[in-house]
Amino acid sequence: MVFLQILFLVLGFGALVKGADIFVDGSVSLAHRFRVSSLLIGLTIVAFGTSMPELAVSTTAALQEANEIALSNIVGSNIFNLLVILGLCAIIRPLPVDSALLRYDIPFSLIVTFFSLIVIAFHIVLGGTFFSLEMEAAAGSVTRPFAVTLLVLFTAYLVYLIYDARKNLLPKEKKCLLPPLWKNILFIAVGLVLIIAGGEAVVYAARNIAQKAGMSETLIGLTIVAIGTSLPELITSIVASRKGENALAVGNIIGSNIFNLLFILGISAVIRPVTVNVASIYDLAILTVVTAVSFIFALSKKTISRKEGFFMLVLYIAATIFAAIR
Questions:
Q1: CA atoms within 13 A of residue 179's CA, in its CB half-sphere
Q2: Smallest Cα–Cα separation from 303: which of 130, 109, 101, 45?
Q3: d(Cα 51, Cα 32) in Å, to the nearest integer?
Q4: What confidence score (pLDDT) does residue 309 get?
Q5: Of 19, 60, 93, 278, which sees the most CB atoms within 10 A?
Q6: What is the pLDDT of residue 138?
Q7: Residue-wise over 9-25: b if at least 16 C-beta within 10 A, else e?
Q8: Residue 285 to residues 220, 260, 290, 318, Cα–Cα distance (Å)
């Protein structure tokens, strides 16, 4: 039985790596075809595709009235994305950060994270009256009006990306050098299916192995499940970085974080207001600090160095220990 779980684990990681390889190739080729930057594809198609596990977990939790999981899943994934994925990519190879990310996308991610922290904290302090249409709304929840605000911000961000892409089209390439459009779409679709299926297989096998080893459900949730939903971003960004597509690798992380916070939290809270407790405020505060630290590192020489990558991993370990013992 254990052998079968190990086999699932190996096959899952194999599907993740191969899927990421195909997914990145298809995404880069699509960028060339439409004369847009790899960064834009990383911020949109790649980011949204790799965030599908978070979307599935959070919306399912909301539908099952266990939607306090929605916020912790989103915040935990965003912290993992910044500290572990960017950190590992920087350790493998110092990670250049596109100037457009430094001017617009990372500051926007920091602003919306801080904005969410302030609104949710005030909502608790004011007993549920802030951004609430109902005076009797429970203190400590992401209300539907605030969820709509998040979705409006997300729509505005997408409109900006489209406008910027149309304004900065790249030079045309010879058509004979580009694969047909159907092949690009097929590569992206097959790659994404392999990534998601591989991630599910890894989480399933790792959870069973951990249970047999005597790990508690809480510890499994804090580690294996939380990391499992971020495996698509992890493998895709590492593969992109190794292929020299640094803009796509970093854009995937920043785009995923924006997508998680604005779209996934927005959709989850529209389905049913998301319960918030004091622990969620701590986690959002940590995410705000982590986003600021990542921004500062990226600003230094427009590169995240190996030393900074190591520091980010240490910071993630410290944040995980704090979450486990609080």
A1: 14
A2: 101
A3: 23
A4: 95
A5: 19
A6: 42
A7: beebbebbbbbbbbbbb
A8: 23, 16, 9, 14
Average pLDDT for 212-217: 65
Give CA torsion, residues 308, 314, 315, 320, to 10 deg. Answer: 150
214 strand-pairing partners: none
Q: Which two tokens stand for residue 4?
A: 């079968």
The b/e string for 139-162 (b: 16+ C-beta within 10 A; e otherwise) is ebbbbbbbbebbbebbeebbeebe
d(CA 312, CA 164): 31
Q: What's the token pair of residue 209?
A: 């192995």
What is the per-residue pLDDT for 136?
36
The mean predicted confidence, pLDDT, of the chain is: 81
Taking the CB of residue 309, how many other CB atoms lie within 10 A of it? 23
Q: How much is the pTM?
A: 0.82
Distance between CA 23 and CA 187 in Å, rounded? Answer: 6
Q: What is the pLDDT of residue 300?
A: 85
The per-residue pLDDT for range 107-133, each reduced to its tens digit, is: 999 999 999 998 888 776 665 544 444
% of the chain beyond a pLDDT of 70: 84
Locate all alpha helices (DSSP H) within the chain, ordered by sequence. Answer: 2-33, 38-41, 47-50, 52-63, 68-80, 86-92, 99-100, 106-125, 144-167, 181-212, 217-220, 226-228, 231-242, 246-258, 265-271, 278-299, 306-325
Which residue bears the tokens 């392999």?
194
At 216, the amino acid letter reads S
Residue 5's pLDDT is what?
78
Considering only CA atoms, which of 55, 110, 72, 65 is closest in space to residue 277? 72
Condensed to tens digits (0 to 9), the pLDDT of residues 132-177 reads 444 334 456 788 889 999 999 999 999 998 888 777 776 665 555 6
Total residues belonging to the chain: 326
Structure tokens at 207: 């959870």
